[in-house]
Design a protein that fits this description.
CATH superfamily of the largest domain: Periplasmic binding protein-like II
Distance between the termini: 51 Å
CATH class of the largest domain: Alpha Beta
Mean pLDDT: 95
Low-confidence stretches: none
Number of helices: 16
Number of strands: 11
Structural class: alpha/beta
Order of helices and strands: EHEHHEHHEEEEHHEHHHEEEHHHHHH
Largest sheet: 5 strands, mixed
CATH architecture of the largest domain: 3-Layer(aba) Sandwich
Strand order of the largest sheet: 2-1-3-11-6
Helix content: 40-55%
Radius of gyration: 20 Å
Number of domains: 2
Strand content: 5-15%
């Protein structure tokens, strides 16, 4: 039997899953063929057609509500029931629970955090809060350099969500509740707009990958305060390796960034459940995540990866630097319809950051799109 899997297109994702395919063939005689979609598809495109085309899919936890409502994936509690939340960094495992079931194995751990080019940031200190970030941005501009922010949908919205969470009033996770606290949204929106005005303008067209690529290739973006981290850009084969630092939250702490990462799930149409379960078990342990994920440009979701000296050296100290940030991350809603809201709300944030609407228009737009009627 050949299992067919759907992954997303970056070496952080593809190299570990190819290593897992080779291990599955060597250990179990399972052939696992991966197809790849772009990051945009990973962020918004899990549906019934994909669930019926593939056996295994790498997906993001906010899809869990739709998965549960539409029966797109297999429940995995019986297969992975021996795993506990403490085995994974932060909320990585808990984020894949919805409607009383576990829908995926976390194979990648991530959240938003700061990234920087040390050679361009010198002699400036790392900002510890958002006020210091804005002051840094002004100093960099006087030197002909920029901050960096990726704000193309949905990334601008998710930076806004991180700021709201850090300020103590995150977006709602229940569609029956109002989506946000108006005063907090207004404050967070002002902080985001101020940072965008000090950032390289093409960030409006970038996702997180594009920002990492730009910072590694160009010599004018010194520091980004909040983006989903791709730790592989710290590896020595990069022409200009990046470094990573805690999120400079407005309250002076790194709390509230929006949890990312990926999980591997088994579709409802999987043609060989025992084989698919063997692949999951292959990737569930720390030794295998270390060998198949960390050593192939990936960032494991297992907690051990964020605590060990060897693992920290592999990414130039990123795990130690970001552990507090990911452990204090906020988990997005997982109700059916959230992903649609995230995409459409991202367009509203784009309009706000382009000065096409004001804060009142931003709030009205986000509220009007909120499912369940609580936003109106």
């Amino acid at each position: 039997m050949t299992l067919k899997g759907l992954n997303w297109g970056h070496r952080r994702a593809t190299a570990p899953m190819q290593a897992a395919a080779e291990a599955a063939r060597a250990r179990f005689g399972i052939t696992l063929d991966w197809e790849v979609q772009p990051l945009s598809g990973f962020e918004s495109g899990l549906n019934a057609a994909l669930a019926d085309r593939y056996d295994l899919i790498v997906f993001d936890h906010p899809f869990c509500g739709t998965i549960a409502a539409q029966g797109l994936m297999q429940k995995l509690d019986a297969v992975l029931g021996d795993l506990g939340d403490e085995d994974f960094i932060g909320g990585s495992l808990a984020s894949y629970r919805s409607a009383g079931a576990l829908w995926a194995l976390p194979v990648d751990g991530a959240t938003q955090a700061a990234l920087l080019r040390p050679d361009l940031l010198e002699p400036h200190a790392l900002p510890r809060d958002w006020a210091a970030l804005l002051a840094l941005g002004e100093r960099l501009q006087r030197q002909g350099r920029w901050l960096g922010l990726a704000s193309a949908t949905p990334h601008g919205l998710l930076v806004l969500a991180a700021l709201c969470a850090n300020l103590g009033a995150p977006f709602a996770t229940d569609p029956a509740l109002p989506p946000f606290d108006p005063a907090t949204l207004g404050e967070a929106a002002g902080l985001l707009r101020a940072a965008v005005r000090l950032s390289r303008p093409d960030g409006a067209r970038m996702n997180a990958i594009g920002l990492h690529e730009a910072m590694a290739a160009d010599d004018d973006i010194a520091y980004c305060p909040c983006a989903y981290v791709y730790l592989t850009y710290a590896e020595p084969d990069m022409p200009r390796p990046l470094r990573f630092a805690p999120f400079p939250g407005p309250d002076g702490s790194p709390r509230g960034t929006v949890l990312g990462g990926t999980g591997l799930g088994v579709t409802r149409s999987c043609r060989d459940l025992p084989a698919a379960h063997q692949v999951l078990r292959l990737l569930a342990s720390w030794p295998d995540q270390q060998a198949l994920v960390m050593r192939h440009h990936g960032q494991p979701a297992r907690a051990e990866a964020w605590q060990g000296a060897e693992e920290d050296r592999a990414f130039a100290g990123a795990h130690a630097a970001l552990r507090d940030t990911i452990e204090a991350a906020w988990t997005r809603p997982r109700f059916d319809g959230y992903i649609t809201w995230q995409h459409e709300a991202g367009r509203v944030v784009e309009a706000f950051l382009a000065d096409a609407i004001d804060v009142a228009g931003l709030a009205a737009g986000l509220r009007a799109l909120w499912p369940g009627g609580a936003g109106s």
